[in-house]
Amino acid sequence: MSTLSAERPEAAAPVLSMRGVSKHFGAVAALTDIDLDVHAGEVVALVGDNGAGKSTLVKILAGVHPQDAGTVNFDGKDVTIHSPVDSIQLGIATVFQDLALCDNLTVVDNLFLGRELGPWRLNEVEMEVQSWKLLRQLSAKIPSVRIAVASLSGGQRQTVAIARSLLGSPKLIILDEPTAALGVAQTAEVLNLVERLRENGLAVIMISHNMQDVKAVSDRVAVLRLGKNNGTFRMKDVSTDDLIAAITGATDNVVTQRAAQAGAAQAGAGETGAAGAGAAAGSDALADEGAQDSRPADWPGEPNEGPGGQGPGGRGPGGGGLPPGQAGSAGQSGPGAAPEEGTVP
Ligand SMILES: Nc1ncnc2c1ncn2[C@@H]1O[C@H](COP(=O)(O)OP(=O)(O)OP(=O)(O)O)[C@@H](O)[C@H]1O
């Protein structure tokens, strides 16, 4: 990769370029006229409310659903993805939320499941060596490759699933909510892993509902709303408020209303600091947004949603859980991003 393209991935030709992609399920228009570009060495977050069409888009790329209209250009060629095998052979790896790991098998067995080494008998030593190499390349924290996957943490399982998808040497890796249901430390581990993927020159699409995670690792963010493109933003140029407005389709939404309420309450009480962090949790996980819709401002659960949750208070300032050094290297997180997030409910 040239220096220019290494510094600004979007200066090079995209690895993936979708144009005018549409998909209907009967009368439901799941996707209408979608454009999306992803470059090598770039992390693009795909965000949108429930039902926005994210999974459908990913399934088209993974060969689960054929698109009804539009073109997919991959690695410079127009392609038709008829099946998951087509997708893998092209160099697209998709890690779905369920991870599809075999709990009773070891890390090595899971990594090489279906592509075991050795023509007549398994070359266990070589598979183990390659497993370690791969996991080291990802700076993965796996205690042993000979333990059952069932005994690993959520973050470690996600790491194994991602590592397995890399064995096919993909050019594009799609991660479907890789940090969903993970704790703070495990989320940081997975976000670090996403950064390793980018450093290794992969194009990455990451679906996420968590704005904190999106801000921590993405270079660009593509917003889907009701099955249509609703903006593509460079992460460093967009505030969380603007993103939420693009996702919800309005600047006046439940999240901003909560921010206003929290601000008014704070002003009334003459408080500073901690209340803002507590309220921020509401915008970090958009998945929570629906649940918060109907809640009054004085809902009893509210105080617990602050620093102790998945919000900035729980992960340190602006780093999305990344250690300070790595947060800086992400380019979108760290102290520079903190004031922006402070404006969010
Ligand atoms: N197999 C299917 N059959 C019929 N309708 C479908 C199917 N898959 C998705 N849809 C519809 O297409 C629309 C987009 O769904 P999709 O799952 O892609 O959204 P999403 O953004 O991934 O949502 P979520 O964040 O809830 O996973 C929705 O209206 C959904 O009901």
From TrEMBL:
PANTHER family, alphabetized: CARBOHYDRATE TRANSPORT ATP-BINDING PROTEIN MG119-RELATED (PTHR43790), SUGAR ABC TRANSPORTER ATP-BINDING PROTEIN (PTHR43790:SF8)
Keywords (A to Z) from UniProt: ATP-binding, Nucleotide-binding
Lineage of source species: Bacteria, Bacillati, Actinomycetota, Actinomycetes, Micrococcales
Record keyword Ribosomal protein present: no
Ranges annotated as biased composition (Low complexity): 324-345
Name of the molecule in the record: ABC transporter domain-containing protein
Region (Disordered) location: 272-345
PROSITE patterns with a match to the protein in the record: ABC_TRANSPORTER_2
Organism: Arthrobacter mangrovi
